Every structure is written in C-alpha cells, then in structure tokens.
Amino acid sequence: MAPTHLGGPVVVIGTGLLGTSIGLGLEHRGVPVFLEDPSPTHQAVAVDIGAGRPVAELEADRGVEPQLVVVAAPPDVTADVVERALARWPRAVVVDIASVKSAILAELRGRSVDLSRYVGTHPMAGREKSGPVAARGELFTSMPWVVCAHREASDDAVRLAKALGADLGATVVEFDADEHDEAVALVSHLPQVMSSLLASRLQGTDLRLLSLAGNGLRDTTRIAASDPDLWIQILGANADKLVKHLYGVREDVERLIGTLEAPTAPGARLDLAQLMSEGNAGQARIPGKHGGPPQAFAWLTVLVDDRPGQIAKLLTEIGEIGVNLEDLRLDHSSGRNVGMVEISVLPSKHDDLVAELEERGWRVLQ
Ligand SMILES: NC(=O)C1=CN([C@@H]2O[C@H](COP(=O)(O)OP(=O)(O)OC[C@H]3O[C@@H](n4cnc5c(N)ncnc54)[C@H](O)[C@@H]3O)[C@@H](O)[C@H]2O)C=CC1
Ligand SMILES: O=C(O)C(=O)Cc1ccc(O)cc1
Questions:
Q1: Which of 240, 273, 346, 356 has the most Cβ atoms closer than 10 angstroms to its Cβ?
Q2: Under CATH, what is the fold of the domain 298-365?
Q3: What is the pTM of this model?
C-alpha cells in the first residue's frame, strides 16, 4: 500500500512539549496546523514559535474539518479530550500520543464513541522538560513511533496515524495496546523510577561530595529531572506491569546487599562479577539509535577554547568533512578555559575524522 502523507488541516490539542513539537514538525513540512490548549499562555507560545495557528481560525472557516486531530494532553484527561474531539469533528480521525495505551482504550470502550475513527499512538521520544518552550520540531526524527491499531479502528484511521509518525521522520512500529504497555514498563517506566530512586539518594548530601560527579551520575540521573505531574499519571496507569520488574529489581538488590555485607566471603567476587556481566549483557541488547541492531559507536574528544562560536565552528567543519554525528556531549575541564566536546561516530569513520580534524588544527583526544 502506498504510504499516505498528511495534507491537513491537523488540529493539535494540548500544546506542551509534545503537541508543540508535533506542530513545529508538521508546519515545517508544509502541513497546516491549528492549536488549542486550556492554558492561554501555552497556546500563545506555541503559536508564537511557529507550531500553528489558533484553532478558532479553522472554526471561522465554516464547514472545514480537520483531516486529523492529535490529542497531546496529559494521560489522565486524554480519554475525555479524545471523546470530545470525536464529537466536535464527526469526520476527522483522532489520535492520541499518551505514554500509556491500554487504560485509555479501555476508558474509551466504556463510552459510546465512534472508535473506528480513533487510534492510540506513542512517540518514543521526548525530553525531561515540559511545556512548549522546550519543543523541537525534529524531536521525532528516527525515533520509534508506536501505532496501536485496535479491532474497531478503520483502515483509514490507522493509515493516517502511521502517516503522522512517518511525516515527522519517525520509524513507525505496530504494537497492540497491551504489548505496548508491557514494553514501555521495561524500556521507559523502569528507567524513570530507577533514575528517580538514584537521584533521590543525592538529597541532603554534602555538596563537596557531589562536586566530584562525572558523566556516570549525569547519564543515569538525566531523566530524574522529569515532570512529576506527568509521571504520577504514567506510573499509576501502568502500575501492574511496572511492579513485576520492580520485584525482579528487589530480588537483585537483596542479593547484592548480601554479597556486599560480606565482600570477602567465598563466592562474593563471583557474585559481583556475575552482576556486572549480566548488566553488560543487558546493555548490549539495546538497539542502535535508528532501531537497528545494537551498534557500538566510536568516541573521540575534541578540546575547544572556551570562546563563543567554537563549538559551532567545530560542528560546521565536521559537516564539511561529511561525517554524521551519532551523539554529542559537552563537558568543561574545571579550572581551565577549555571545553571538551565528546563526539560519537560510526567506527568506520573514526580514524578519518580524527585525521581530518587534526589537519584543520583541532586538538583531538581519542
Ligand atoms: N514528555 C515526554 O517526553 C513524552 C510525553 N508523551 C505524552 O505526551 C502527552 C503530553 O505530554 P507533554 O507534552 O510532555 O506534557 P506538557 O505538560 O508539556 O504538555 C501538556 C499540555 O496539555 C495541556 N492540557 C492540560 N489539560 C488539558 C486538557 N484537559 N485538554 C487539553 N490540553 C490540556 C497543558 O496545558 C499542556 O500545555 C502526555 O500524554 C505524555 O504521556 C509521550 C511521549 C514523550
Ligand atoms: O527523555 C527521554 O530520554 C525519554 O525517554 C522521554 C520520554 C518520556 C516519556 C515517554 O512516554 C517517552 C519518552
């Protein structure tokens, strides 16, 4: 079947981080977007940064219905907002993007709504920030976008739901709602609670101890900065699936405590080696950035003078060299006026990039 592209108009209800990012991405592709949010400030900011026009402008055009309505509201109110959108635009397809899927589908099944025009979806991309100011039109590029086709959904509705993800540059994957919730309990909700539990240990600690923090702590606690209002809704709606993983974590933590309470006992070192190698084995199973097989990227570090424009210059030159960046981290060497830009690239590009950068006068550490 030929891929569908959206022609619009598309209405986005909820102009926070995700809704505004969707609006920006679609407008960038030339799809007309109309926005609505109960917060006049969020709506105005989304309009101001170019994510679309107020929905009142669409409604002023009598008889014009959106092709697609995207509900990007918090999970708790998503079913209500979907129900209202289906009634308000009786020919439009309505999708939501909430992080949990079974509870919302079950809520909608309990109401008399036209489920043939509804499809649940979930972009597996976001940030630890919320609100329209944090929005990015390219947020979804190459990230998975789950489409949960259910038995009542029409082919047309499923086609438009997939077109939304594809038009935003995401990789569309199909899961049923229950399978989706099973998956996100492991790959999204467990990481969130582990990160929050870890970061909560840092409260009230001596700042002198924290001054030694390196990337290990930053990597493992980044998402602990996520919005509590959103996450209490997500965790509450998928509690039964998440708690099964936490039983496993509890068992492993109890085992580890037992080992560390007697670290010289026979077998203790073997237990620790096993813990580490089990972690290595799990980590190696995480797919590459584009959903492909696990891929080890090669890292290099470039030292840049702490002056405005240096990082932009470096990135421009890497673009000129023709190497695609897979990941980028910035760090400062404390006490010295030097920044460290850590770059990951495909291993096959590493040596050439190092040579080219050195030739252009950059100081590269490998
Ligand atoms: N934050 C993330 O990284 C991701 C979030 N999601 C899902 O996207 C949805 C939106 O999340 P964010 O954009 O992060 O949150 P956000 O807090 O940035 O934005 C939510 C927006 O919904 C509005 N809103 C509140 N009540 C509403 C209602 N009754 N009707 C319409 N709009 C309402 C708020 O005013 C706000 O502008 C959630 O369902 C979340 O589960 C999905 C993938 C990633
Ligand atoms: O910031 C990150 O790395 C995330 O993974 C964000 C995120 C948050 C909630 C979702 O439902 C999906 C993705």
A1: 356
A2: VC0802-like (3.30.2130)
A3: 0.86
